[in-house]
Amino acid sequence: MDLKSLIRDIPDFPKPGILFRDITTLLRDAQGLRYTIDLFTQKCTDAGMTADFVIGMESRGFIFGAPLAYNLGAGFIPVRKKGKLPGSIHSIEYALEYGTDCLEVHQDALQPGSRVIIADDLIATGGTACATAELLNKIGCELVGFGFIIELQELQGRKKLPDVPIVTLVEY
């Protein structure tokens, strides 16, 4: 199946000069969605990624991370933007192109030594994925790999990431 044909390009979003890769067209296609989740699972398995948990980054990482966790027999844990989680949290602030942002995870979600995969829909500059990896390192987790549906190769985001397996399904 040609996944690229199910991903819509939207020019000048969210600002002029940006070509947005929209996955909503992939998500609405039942066969395409099933194929994507099955292929994602297979590629992570083939890369030797065995984990206790799959971490999904807000928000599209939730869409792909939860079924990946289910297929791998792992738990799913959301990493959220600041202020979205109740209770005690671990957090990390990270730099954006203009300013900073913050990611959070519940303190009781992970224990030191937990083996984790970080999943998201897309890797661009790698900033959010790198910050999530740093947050997990701070907790004492073992990062076993990253999984992304789409990689924007020209932005070289994977260069920011730790040296673990990285799975992608579609490259632009």
TrEMBL record:
<dbReference type="InterPro" id="IPR005764">
    <property type="entry name" value="Ade_phspho_trans"/>
</dbReference>
<feature type="domain" description="Phosphoribosyltransferase">
    <location>
        <begin position="36"/>
        <end position="158"/>
    </location>
</feature>
<keyword id="KW-0963">Cytoplasm</keyword>
<protein>
    <recommendedName>
        <fullName>Adenine phosphoribosyltransferase</fullName>
        <ecNumber>2.4.2.7</ecNumber>
    </recommendedName>
</protein>
<dbReference type="GO" id="GO:0003999">
    <property type="term" value="F:adenine phosphoribosyltransferase activity"/>
</dbReference>
<dbReference type="GO" id="GO:0002055">
    <property type="term" value="F:adenine binding"/>
</dbReference>
<keyword id="KW-0328">Glycosyltransferase</keyword>
<dbReference type="GO" id="GO:0006166">
    <property type="term" value="P:purine ribonucleoside salvage"/>
</dbReference>
<keyword id="KW-0660">Purine salvage</keyword>
<dbReference type="InterPro" id="IPR000836">
    <property type="entry name" value="PRTase_dom"/>
</dbReference>
<dbReference type="GO" id="GO:0044209">
    <property type="term" value="P:AMP salvage"/>
</dbReference>
<dbReference type="InterPro" id="IPR050054">
    <property type="entry name" value="UPRTase/APRTase"/>
</dbReference>
<dbReference type="GO" id="GO:0016208">
    <property type="term" value="F:AMP binding"/>
</dbReference>
<comment type="function">
    <text>Catalyzes a salvage reaction resulting in the formation of AMP, that is energically less costly than de novo synthesis.</text>
</comment>
<dbReference type="InterPro" id="IPR029057">
    <property type="entry name" value="PRTase-like"/>
</dbReference>
<dbReference type="GO" id="GO:0006168">
    <property type="term" value="P:adenine salvage"/>
</dbReference>
<dbReference type="Pfam" id="PF00156">
    <property type="entry name" value="Pribosyltran"/>
</dbReference>
<dbReference type="GO" id="GO:0005737">
    <property type="term" value="C:cytoplasm"/>
</dbReference>
<keyword id="KW-0808">Transferase</keyword>
<comment type="subunit">
    <text>Homodimer.</text>
</comment>
<comment type="pathway">
    <text>Purine metabolism; AMP biosynthesis via salvage pathway; AMP from adenine: step 1/1.</text>
</comment>
<comment type="similarity">
    <text>Belongs to the purine/pyrimidine phosphoribosyltransferase family.</text>
</comment>
